[in-house]
Amino acid sequence: MHRPRNGQDFATLSLVRPAHLDVADTVRLVLESQPMRALAALLSRNGLEVEIQPIVYKDLSGTLTRLMFPVTGGPIVDGAVVSVVCLFDRKSRETLYAHPMHAGPGVNPLVRHLDGPLAAPKSQSGADGDRASRRIIEHKQALWDRFIHELPILGKEEADQRWREGYYWSLQRLYFCSGCTQCKWGSPFFDGPDPLVSSASTVATVSTNGDISPKLHDQYSEIVADILSSDAWRVETTYAARGGFSLIDSPRLLKELDSEFVQVIFSTNAVLLQAGTLVAVAFTYQIRSQEVVLSHCLCAGPESEIQFQKGDVAFGLPLPQSGHLGKDARSAYRSWRRRAWSQFWLNDLDNGTAVASGRWLEAFWAAIEALFGGNDLSYGSQPVRRSPELDMPDAINTTRRKPIVPPQALENIGGRCFTGHATNRSRSELRALGLSTLMVNVGLQSGVPPLPCRVGAQSHGRNDP
Questions:
Q1: Would you state the pLDDT for residue 403?
Q2: In whole numbers, what is the pLDDT of the chain averaged over residues?
Q3: Is the dihedral of CA 450, 456, 460, 463 positive or negative?
Q4: Of 126, 135, 125, residue with least CA distance to 192
Q5: Mapping DSSP to helix (H, G, I), strand (E, B) and coil, where does residue 132 land?
Q6: What proportions of the chain, in percent to the nearest 5, are helix, strand and coil?
Q7: Residues 6 or more apart from 272 whose CB is under 8 A from it?
Q8: Positive/negative CA dihedral, 456, 457, 462, 465
């Protein structure tokens, strides 16, 4: 076991020393324990080494502490040991176990089965623990999808490093991020939510403003009016309200399927997504009877809607597009759904839920238009037309990004999480009542970092970086 090599910095944020225990002593006891020494010896026989700097250190319930150490020295392949997880009892001062953690798309069954008898102690307390476990399942699958995709593009060395960086960051998110509420995102020594701060929701939330107001031709206005006054609309809006959502009464997509049916899709006011979040409702309108013959929900997630995939079989409805284009479009949409949900979790991992949700929703509507071969609505002067052969929007982004906290996410985080991001070197905490202004320091010379705002601050400052 050794210190990280030069250039290898596995901790995303600076470690903060908690006041109630000696971190160095605990780490030393774990590294010198029989379970860790036995596992480290076995790994060493295969050219692998356990780093002495933990990437995760967190006090759990009672007297238990969880530590995770990176393992280096070998390539990333399915099944490779990439870290060691330990459970330490502070009262007895002994390491209860040291278990290997492996590269690949899956997680330990003890993590996957949330209600299993050995699932405790979880990474976080209460419902946040279950949500964090579900998140690491998605993160790890998405990271492996990206790794397989990037391997022939970036080469083995860079693809391996990007997978390691993403995986170690996902472990920190597992233990220290509760969905952008009372958390210190990535802080390895966060003891839990501030009990003096009211709990905030960590599930999908909605906003109240719809921002889509297309111009409707007369014949389409009548169709939309029929839908808005139908029993189907009343049923779907009532159902959506049960989940805290509401439908925007201006359609987002309208497409004539043939001379008999029209597909009309309305968005909801969902903003922050999780699997199963209601993002839209589709209505199939029959021109001859002037009635809605079918309505169904569209939800975020990896699965495509069964009505879009098998509507012709179950209900005798036309394909999204005519002829073989309809079958090809359905297949492309189904594939896009799976890839896009993987990208959603990559975006969530690096940038947070707000950014991931916004990007997924934007791509979702482009994919829906590609599925139906266009959009007969006019968002300005001309209807939106898409070539039937147009590919689905790209779901795998290979652009290299470091974890950031973007403005969109900050606007949804609030004061407590700001405290976590702003405080990472001392016990004293910065507090924020709210977020109204963001200041960005920009370097004017390429390659020269910007000075902090407090350096050389004056009313007539120089034009320096």
A1: 41
A2: 76
A3: negative
A4: 125
A5: helix
A6: 35, 20, 45
A7: 204, 205, 353, 354, 357, 412
A8: positive
What's the gap between Cα 1 and its chain centre?
33
Q: What pLDDT does residue 429 have?
A: 44
CA distance 75 to 159: 10
The predicted pLDDT at position 336 comes to 94
3-state secondary structure of 83: strand
**For residue 153, what pLDDT is reported?**
95
Q: Using CB atoms within 10 A of its CB, is residue 313 exposed (0-12), middle (13-18) or buried (19+)?
A: exposed
Residues in the chain, how many? Answer: 465
Question: Are the C-beta atoms of 196 and 64 separated by less than 8 Å?
Answer: no
pLDDT of residue 193: 39
CA–CA dist 463, 465 (Å, integer): 7
Chain centre distance of CA 130 = 15
What is residue 245's three-state secondary structure?
A: coil
Mention every residue, 6+ apart, whose C-beta is less than 8 A from residue 333. 304, 308, 367, 368, 370, 371, 392
* Mean pLDDT calculated for residue range 300-304: 92
The pTM score is: 0.72
* pLDDT 10s digits, 222-271: 999 999 999 999 999 999 999 889 999 999 999 998 889 999 999 999 98
Least confident of 41-45, 128-132, 141-145, 391-395: 391-395
Gyration radius (Cα) of the chain, Å: 26
CA atoms within 13 A on the CB side of 257: 21
- Residue 178 neighbours by CB under 8 Å, 6+ apart: 124, 128, 131, 132, 193, 202
pLDDT in tens, 366-376: 999 999 999 99
Which tokens hold the place of 385? Answer: 């037309």
Structure tokens at 113: 């089965």
DSSP strand pairing (261-268 vs 247-256): antiparallel
The residue ranking higher by pLDDT, 125 or 283, is: 283
Low-confidence winner among 25-34, 162-171, 236-245, 419-428 (lowest mean pLDDT) = 419-428
- Token digits of residue 223: 């169709």
356, amino acid identity: A
Round to whole Å and give the CA distance between 146 and 126: 31
Residue 217 CB contacts under 8 Å (≥ 6 apart), including other chains: 378
| Both tokens assigned to 7 | 């250039």
Picking from 270, 281, 277, the residue whose alpha carbon sits closest to that of residue 232 is 281
Structure tokens at 157: 């060395």
Task: Specify the 3-state DSSP secondary structure of 37.
Answer: helix
